[in-house]
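Hi D.,

Good news: the full-assembly prediction came through. Inputs first.
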Amino acid sequence: MTPLLKVENISKFYGNRIGCQDVNFDLFPGEVMGIVGESGSGKSTLLNCLAGFLTPETGEVLFEMRDGDMRDTVTMSEPERRMLSRTDWAFVHQHARDGLRMNVSAGGNVGERLMAVGARHYGNIRAEAVDWLGRVEINETRVDDRPTQFSGGMQQRLQIARNLVTGPRLVFMDEPTGGLDVSVQARLLDLLRGLVREMGLSAIIVTHDLAVVRLLADRLMVMKDGHVVETGLTDQVLDDPQHAYTQLLVSSVLQV
Amino acid sequence: MAMIEINNLSKTFTLHNQGSAVIPVMEGANLTVARGECVALTGASGAGKSTLMRMIYGNYLAAGGSILVDGLDVAQAEPREILTLRREVLGYVSQFLRVVPRVPTLEVVAEPLLSVGVEKETALARARVLLTQLRIPERLWGLSPTSFSGGEQQRVNIARGFAHTYPAMLLDEPTASLDAANRATVLGLIEDAKARGAAIIGIFHDEAARDQVCDREIDVSVYTPRAQ
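Then the structure:
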């Protein structure tokens, strides 16, 4: 098996400050990798470099195209990268409003993504949109409502539907359960896990919630001050952390 | 070839935030388990029985030595190789159930089968058989086990652990806190697994259970490093 994504020596600086430095890893098809670390550790910077929102100073982000070629997404042209982000990638933002069109109906939010990849038949688009709203547990009767009329958890599920409707191969998630009630979080986690397995998705999830990565991620990367300090199997890193910072992180979680 | 072969295994814990204390917990451990064999780990609490099991499962990192499970050295393997091993070859029944909230019991039990590609109906049918055998009332199957009693959760955990016919299994106190009837069921499941050729390592404080299903005992306290 060959990796879907090969990340080599990615560094990003903000002036003299380090955003992230010398990050390397491979992600294989169907694998879910979690990135944890405190605020300011560079995990969101890294995610944004991988997803093409930020340009790293050094390094390559090699992505396996559908024809099997490994292409560097850092150096590819903007239109090419934009097409990739519609067809093969998805990005789930922490705040649903950053990933949704708030003044377009729920059905329109999902349908728009399909139209962006060439769907034109209104009936098919609407049917597919309704199907996806069902999969993320949004009732068909809400298809013409705008996201502004939805609760936070529903908005997040709508964002996921909008992102996954085009059948991407790689999903980036930035704190997908942040700011939601724990009961809503659990529901979202269950949903994400099911979708990842059914669709064979690869995913990179940035979060500071260790319980979320334990349930969702196969592998874990721990970041501190822009550097990766530890990587490994998720349960191994959480149950037998080797680095001082990871030990501190794991022992700082409040038990309920 | 042995299914599980452990050579010269050692383990230390370094507590960086507690004065960088280095605690050696295991040294020079050797163990071989053949197909169809069940080996009990014995030794007082703290001797390292669970630590050894967790290392075999890849949950704890080995400090040195090798842990071959079906030919893969868990002490050196990549995370994804260990995940494949866990999915297909090596089952683990821990003492505690850890599941995503909200997933119904029937699916929790069927999940290991679904993840190796078994058809959904076949997987659910097998889950129903196991839940019936372990006396989980049918009215609970559609509910999440997170709200069950301790004993029920343990039985769901066992059902899940035995859903897929793993060639190798780790069992951590599988009969603890079970009533006589369920205990007999679990011992039956272990004997069936042995009969189909599974290599099993178990921790049993229940001596009668150990005598019934285990072929050998390994006292892990001989691998506990002595204070200098």
